[in-house]
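Feature request, filed as a ticket because there's no other form

It would be nice if the structure record came with a short human-readable summary line next to the tokens. Right now we just get the raw output. Example of a typical job, pasted below so the devs can see what we mean:
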Amino acid sequence: RSASGVIAELDAMREAFREVLGGDQGGTRLVRPPYGQITPGQVRRLSAAGYRVVECDVLPGDWAASSDVVIRRILRWAKCGSIIALHDGNNAGPQVARTVDAVIPALRERGFGFVTVLGLERGP
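Raw output as currently delivered:
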């Protein structure tokens, strides 16, 4: 899709959120490109339209691996400031729930805390 087409879709999504949730939903200005693929020009266009591209640094392959494998990968790869991508489509919700139920306490034991992406900008 063209950058202008993507921006039009994002603007329509923000308006739908505003109608349902009321007020301005600041987090809806955050964009994770599909498959993490985006060109510098697309980033510039999105930025000029007021959007911020956010990428993950831990992509544990939850769409193709068992929950146990995904948990091990997350615990091995996560570091301070990591953004972990997990998918809940294609009936994967129960597996993702098991993964999250195991990963959050394990990471907390290692001294990790959890914040929103906007919270990452504010720092500790």
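Something like this underneath would help us a lot:
Residues 29 and 50 are 7 Å apart (CA to CA).
The helical segments are 3-21, 40-48, 67-77, 93-109, 117-122.
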